Amino acid sequence: MLATAASYYIKLWNLNNENDIVSVKEKSSCMPHGSSNVLCMEWTQDSSLIGTAGNDGCLVLCIPETGIFSEVIPTGRLKNSKNDEIHTMKFYNKSNYIVFGGSGKIVKCWDRQHNKFLNNYTSHIKTITSLDVNHSENCVSSVSENGDILINSLETKASIFRNISKNSLNKIIYSKNSNTRVFTIDDHGNLYSYDTINLEIDNEIQISDSLAINDISVSPLNNNILITANENGTITFVDSQNKNIVNTYKATDPLTSVSVRIDGSMLACGTSRGQVLLYDIRMNRQLHKFWAETKAVQALRFQKHMLSSESEEFNKSTSLETLSPTIVNNITTPKKSQSIISTNDSNDITSNLLSAFTTPTNKKSIISRTTSSNFFPSNINPPFDYNFSKNKSQKFYIPIVLSNTYIIII
Questions:
Q1: Considering the entire predicted model, what is its pTM?
Q2: In the sheet where 234-239 sits, what is the strand order?
Q3: Are 145 and 127 in contact (CB under 8 A)?
Q4: What GO molecular function terms would the record report (predicted)?
Q5: Across the strands, what pairs with 52?
């Protein structure tokens, strides 16, 4: 199941694949923030709830099938304040914590089980655009509009604040192979690999020429593969270990968001015009495209756990070989009057092989930042196991329809 956030709406989509033909059906739609725009969205650990936040400063958890509120998270929002939009949020995988931040410039951590705030992290002087938690869940890192990064240790309660770019940083994610390495992107087309122990940029790549990188994701099947959605209409696959770009897909509209299905078989991208593009990573081709809204797709996310009926449809694994360069034609975006199911055989992918993680010749080489004292514990836990089933007990969801009401039996 795929969730999209665009304008006021959160929508759920059932994606079915039969004989290489994908059908898309809208399962439900809700407006969790009324007439306020949704700015960010995340599934909970077990995919039973969707967390959303918007420019109304509210953070709510709702039941996906009905849109009914399950929880309302206190945000410390001042009444009638217009300076506390929530732009980013993250659920912990091993606990009931949720962290969030935005124009209030404070990273807040809420304990859903005990209904209390645990920590507030300050230092940002501009709007927080993104945050992430490392896989041991003992560090939270966040980035802001003026290129700052704030690294917070939950064990020592210490914080490190650095400026790593003159440009706005749009997204940050932790490496799946390390608790101390983050990847972040900016609005001038650069992707950075940053070492949170030595406090320096390891590598930098220019993905697009002076145009923003709007989103970044990690392949569920290969932790070394980073996937970016770019303002110039390209989707870029970067091998962070070998430090090169291994594939590029080309669309016509600016891309706003990207997500990969948990089995690694399908990739979804949102566009600035409200369209969703679906790709088969294994076959290296476009599968389908449909309209989610008439405005830009702010975020889209596949479920972290697939229902048994969904997982049977895509049971083949994806290898890195499927990301090898192939030459095909450019994708064209259909007009709204076109059928929702694309029958254009030429809707394939353009793939390029580029040099990566090398400093461009026309840019000054990066100077390593001065290393501050190490606030973090020296014993770093082994890489996180992406198998979420090991973190929580297995649950089975059986949907029952009674008079258009969805009931989930656990």
A1: 0.75
A2: 213-218, 225-230, 234-239, 244-250, 354-355
A3: yes
A4: gamma-tubulin binding
A5: 41, 60
Beta pairing, strands 266-271 & 255-260: antiparallel
DSSP string spanning 312-346? Answer: TTS-S---GGGGS----PPP-PPPTTS-SS---TT
Distance in angstroms (rounded) separating the CA atoms of residues 196 and 371? 10
Number of domains present in the structure of the chain: 1
CATH number at 29 reads 2.130.10.10
Q: What residue numbers bound the domain in which 126 lies?
A: 2-409
Alpha-carbon Rg for the chain in angstroms? 20
pLDDT tens digits for 70-119?
Answer: 889 988 765 555 658 999 999 998 888 999 999 999 999 999 999 999 88
Alpha helices in 33-119 (DSSP H): none
Q: Encode 320-347: b = buried (16+ Cβ within 10 Å), e = exposed.
A: eebbeeeebeebeebeeeeeeebeeeeb
H runs (alpha helix) in 156-243: none
